[in-house]
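Task 17 of the worksheet. Students: predict the tertiary structure of the chain below and write it out as structure tokens. Keep your answer in the requested format; marks are given for formatting as well as content.
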Amino acid sequence: MDPIGPSLDHTKAILFAPFDLNRWLAIGFCAWVASLGEGGGPSFNYKQTAGEANQWINKIDSFLASNPMIIGVLVVLSIVVAVVMIWLSSRGRFMFYHCVLYNSDQVVHPWHYYQHLAYSLFRFRLVLLALGIVFAVAVASAAISIFGPTLQAITLHTLWPFLLYVPLLAIVPLGLIICGTLTHDFVIPIMHKHTLTCTAAWSQLWSMIAIHKVDFFLYLLFKALVAVAVSSAIFFLALITCGCACCLAALPYVGTVLLLPVPTFKRAFALHYLRQFGPDFDLFVSEPDPNQDEPDPTPDHYAI
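Model answer:
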């Protein structure tokens, strides 16, 4: 079964049949909460010389050296913000999933209904965050040991040994990105379908990936092509609007609302792709919209 056509129809039914601004804004809010912390908006760069860059590095280095407590505060603050963002977006991902699966614009109900499943997802994503932090610290330590704390000794002679490890260094972040993508797209529906913890749902997904390796590779490739197409479209709009499109797309919530068909299609595509693997993975069969008075589906509370 080709999931693209049904996914487009599903997206059209949710957002355009008929178009309702209040409904669009409500679903956009759920999509925005689900995307918190991703930082996928466009960025703008300006040119500066190597001398100017070194001056900024020296100023920052001098300031941090004279205020060592600032480093600790910034690190702790960054971790706290990251944890809060992960918690909110874990709840938001189930909210947006609910909107797409049930063609709903509810906000409060899915926030409460999926709280235990979202908490399991939150703890799993915390583990991924910890792995990412450990990897980043290891890479930063290696870079500092090679180039020095101010990074002023970067030359071709000192750079080439580090470049030899770039393919190896790319494996870990790429693995974390793929893990995060599959968790968002497939593990969340499996958690809901069978009332499982995140790790238990991952176990089911992993067994399926082992059998359908090519199918999941093609899925990830298609996702990458969609991301490139969307980025190219935004870049083209930025050119013809003198950057206004990028400015709007970068605004919190506003950008998500303007581009809402994109995340809606992606979420619908994942659900229609997953249903190809049998009734155990078909969320559209015997999955009525849960009654607001029913309790939240609760997996093992002490497992991730």
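Marker's comment: Residues 71 and 77 are 10 Å apart (CA to CA). Residues 40-50 have pLDDT under 50 and may be disordered.
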